[in-house]
Specification:
Mean pLDDT: 92
Helix content: over 70%
Number of domains: 1
Distance between the termini: 24 Å
Strand content: under 5%
Number of helices: 11
Shape: globular
Number of strands: 0
Low-confidence stretches: none
Order of helices and strands: HHHHHHHHHHH
Length: about 270
């Protein structure tokens, strides 16, 4: 390990934190930019471990709601409803992920063309739903009807394809099922908590034997920068999409997908 490795780890940590909760695919960005800056991540150990920074950031930002739900499970019907809603929304991706995790990691993550196509198609889908939005039925993410929550959870399974984006799939699902922009984004954050914690546990169990002493410093740097950047981006993102919408992110996805195709065609990736 040298100082340059720590710089690369910091860059990727910032990238992870900035893109994890935006509908632009954090996985796609880490895979592409990791290759571009020459960062070697055998077995995806670094990528798996720094995701914990983003998870803890969103949990810190919503710590009061988490505490209220946990403390209210026995006495408050609304707390129980919230917990059940997230649990049921979490199940579809958890089920598919358990079955397909090995194939996704060992096959799809190596296909840059799939990442590019998923980015582009997701961008056009987001543009379409911005242009022809369904009727808004839900303005508070915490009040999302159970059936709509499960529907968003079903959309989340699409994010198992690298390039789709977990937040992109769940936000699109929320919009399609009648949530307004802010509620769709916030529901995506709520659903991220159990989903990302479960994914981290599964991935950590897979890579734990590959975590070596000389990687600890890189992982620590990436973790810290992922936490800070994620914590800083969430609330400005909510305010931005409430005012402007998801169009800029849709166009960014399309341009980024075309950019990847270009790099592959030139033999640079």
């Amino acid at each position: 390990m040298d100082f340059l490795d720590l710089i690369r780890a910091a860059i990727l940590g910032v990238l992870q934190g900035l893109t994890e909760f935006l509908p632009v695919s954090s996985t796609g960005h880490l895979l592409i930019f990791g290759r571009m800056i020459g960062y070697d991540d055998p077995g995806g150990v670094f990528t798996v471990m720094i995701q914990l920074g983003s998870i803890l950031a969103i949990m810190w930002l919503y710590r009061q709601r988490i505490v209220d739900v946990v403390l209210g499970l026995r006495s408050k019907p609304e707390a129980r409803r919230f917990a059940i809603m997230l649990f049921l929304a979490f199940l579809p991706a958890a089920f598919v992920g358990l079955i397909a995790n090995s194939y996704i990691r060992n096959e799809l993550y190596l296909r840059l063309d799939i990442i590019a196509i998923a980015l582009i198609l997701g961008g056009f889908a987001m543009l379409a739903i911005e242009k022809w939005p369904p009727k808004i039925e839900v303005k508070d993410a915490a009040e999302t009807p159970i059936w709509r929550a499960v529907g968003v959870g079903a959309f989340q399974t699409l994010a198992l394809i690298p390039g789709v984006s977990r937040s992109g799939a769940t936000i699109f699902g929320g919009l399609a099922l009648g949530l307004d922009r802010r509620a769709a984004a916030e529901f995506s954050f709520f659903l991220a908590m159990p989903t990302m914690v479960a994914a981290f546990i599964l991935d950590f169990w897979t890579v734990k034997d590959s975590i070596t002493g000389d990687r600890i410093a890189e992982i620590a740097v990436g973790f810290v920068f992922a936490f800070i950047s994620a914590a800083l981006v969430v609330k400005p993102f909510l305010n931005f999409v409430t005012r402007v919408g998801f169009g800029p992110f849709a166009w960014y996805r399309i341009v980024f997908g075309i950019f990847i195709f270009g790099l592959v065609a030139l033999g640079w990736l």
